[in-house]
Amino acid sequence: EVQLVESGGGLVQPGGSLRLSCTASTASKGTFNNYEINWVRQGPGKGPEWISFISRAGTTILYADSVKGRFTISRDAAENSVSLQMNSLRVEDTAVYYCARYYGGLDYWGQGTLVTVSS
Amino acid sequence: DIVVTQSPLSLPVTPGEPASISCRSSQSLLHSSGNTYLDWYLQKPGQSPQLLIYLTSNRASGVPDRFSGSGSGTDFTLKISRVEAEDVGIYYCVQALEKWTFGPGTKVEI
After folding, report:
1. Which residues of chain A have pLDDT under 50?
2. Which residue of B has its CA nearest to A108?
């Protein structure tokens, strides 16, 4: 079974940076590089918001307008991971950040990592 | 940008009875491939969202057959033939034709 794990969340001041990582559980590591990965966030008391996508080879990258120019998605095949570099963070970026595999739909999700932007 | 709306936003249900949620997109979700890019997700309390239906009418792996999706173009429906207690949560329709856009959610409670 596919299991995704997010890490890297925490408390950061407005204007600061944070790097999130999405990896697969041990059983799924060998196939992680075949996954198309999305990042979806959910602010407190709000619905989910899609923010970024990266294709298997990393050749197709998409961003929501709300994060374009501030966030960068990338993947490291050697590390079997997908990262989300978040710069110029704002209070409104406070959310639980999920990574999710795209295969027809967003069929597997991690448990999320909390990012809090506050002074 | 494609806008997605849902109705109702709150849906009281009775176990054993059917339930239905409507979803509408601001433009057709039909792709030239013939696929219509509308998915349904359920987020149970304290959990990550889970995929129920993809490409309008395909049940995801492990999803009970009491869930069904239908629709075309800009109008879609999720139906639960007989609601069970475990079905409570927030249901989201999501367009996946141009990036991804989540609807506002329908809170289903008993």
Report:
1. none
2. B50
Q: Is A43 on the interface with B (CB under 8 A)?
A: no
What is the CB-side half-sphere exposure of residue B51 using CA atoms within 13 A?
A: 25
Question: Can the peptide bond before residue B8 be classed as cis, meaning omega within 30 degrees of 0?
Answer: yes
Backbone torsions φ then ψ of A102, nearest 5 degrees: -105, 120
**Whole-angstrom distance, CA of residue B99 vs CA of residue A11:** 29
Token digits for B30?
A: 């039909």
- Burial zone of B42 (CB within 10 Å; 0-12 exposed, 13-18 middle, 19+ buried): buried
| Closest by Cα among A27, A20, A10, A5 to A101 | A5
Q: pLDDT by residue (tens digit) across A13-29?
A: 999 999 999 998 766 66
Give the rounded distance of the alpha carbon of B94 from its chain centre: 7
Q: Is A97 on the interface with B (CB under 8 A)?
A: no
